[in-house]
Write a structure and sequence with these properties.
The two termini are 31 Å apart. It contains nine helices and six strands, in the order H-H-H-H-H-E-E-H-H-E-E-E-H-H-E. The chain folds into two domains: 159 residues, dinb family like domain (Four Helix Bundle (Hemerythrin (Met), subunit A), Up-down Bundle); 85 residues, 2-Layer Sandwich (Nonspecific Lipid-transfer Protein, Chain A). The radius of gyration is 19 Å and the shape is globular. It is 48% helix and 8% strand. The strands form two sheets. It has a four-stranded mixed β-sheet. A two-stranded antiparallel sheet has the order 1-2. The protein is an alpha+beta fold.
Length: 262
């Protein structure tokens, strides 16, 4: 019997908006404090420098501001849990658009991006459809994807610079949950329970389902380790060896299903 279709997770629109703004402000403040020599340092994102990573972080909101100024699409085309799985096919275009951003005055770029975004977001309904690279989505859903972009790339920035940029709790929660739901979408089933306390629990992977008591196959990890696994920043074997992932049961190996976002 195929697994029962799960209801989409619901997110509080007001909390999501606040989380996106809070995380962007954290990054803006960190960018303004970085010494100029740090901007040309390497990152773990191929040949992107810190400067290009910061430019991309402004694009996370700047591209949405542009879409809010465009005509509304006529129909929804992409479910929220499918967004992470679709991102790999947009890598080339994202790289090209990022490199086209002028970065001679990063503090001004961040301030300008935030001001325009706040102005356009204030008058937009969460049900309004917006165009994305991967299909039209509601604004409310697309804002959840912005928490993923901001949290994942904040972690990239911290890894590159040691800046210790904080994570907004609600942004971290939304990012964790969406990437967990993407795993459940990629590997549907009920044989494995994945726990990412305190934010998410999902069941995935084909096989026997449990109905009560402790599941026979359990994976547990912390939010940042999960986010790094889900986005390919680290590998399952390495995190298991470092004891940042616990896995019990013969099916509790997620190697074949990771990453869920390119």
């Amino acid at each position: 019997m195929p697994p029962a279709k799960k209801r989409p997770r619901r997110y509080d629109p007001a909390k999501t908006r606040a989380a996106v703004l809070a995380q962007f402000r954290h990054v803006r403040d960190a960018a303004a404090a970085l010494p100029s020599e740090a901007l040309d340092g390497p990152t773990r994102l191929g040949d992107w420098t810190v400067r290009e990573l910061l430019a991309h972080l402004t694009m996370v909101l700047g591209s949405l501001s542009q879409r809010l100024a465009e005509a509304e699409p006529v129909r929804r085309e992409l479910a929220l849990a499918d967004w992470p799985l679709a991102t790999a096919k947009g890598a080339a275009g994202i790289d090209e658009d990022t490199r086209a951003i002028a970065t001679d005055d990063l503090p001004a770029l961040f301030d300008r991006t935030l001001a325009v975004f706040e102005e356009r977001l204030a008058s937009a309904s969460d049900e309004r459809l917006v165009t994305t690279r991967f299909g039209a989505m509601s604004l409310g859903d697309f804002l959840v994807t912005r928490t993923v972009e901001l949290v994942v790339h904040t972690d990239d920035l911290n890894a590159a610079t040691g800046a210790d940029v904080p994570f907004d709790r609600q942004a971290l929660a939304a990012c964790t949950r969406l990437l967990a739901d993407a795993l459940a979408s990629k590997a549907p089933g009920g044989a494995v329970e994945v726990r990412i306390p305190p934010y998410a629990v999902v069941q995935c992977v084909e096989g026997p389902r449990h109905t009560r008591g402790t599941p026979p196959n359990v994976v547990e990890t912390d939010p940042l380790t999960w986010i790094r696994l889900a986005t390919g920043r680290t590998a399952w074997a390495a995190e298991r060896a470092a004891a940042r992932v616990s896995a019990s049961g013969e099916r509790a190996d997620l190697t074949d299903f990771l990453p869920v976002m390119g």
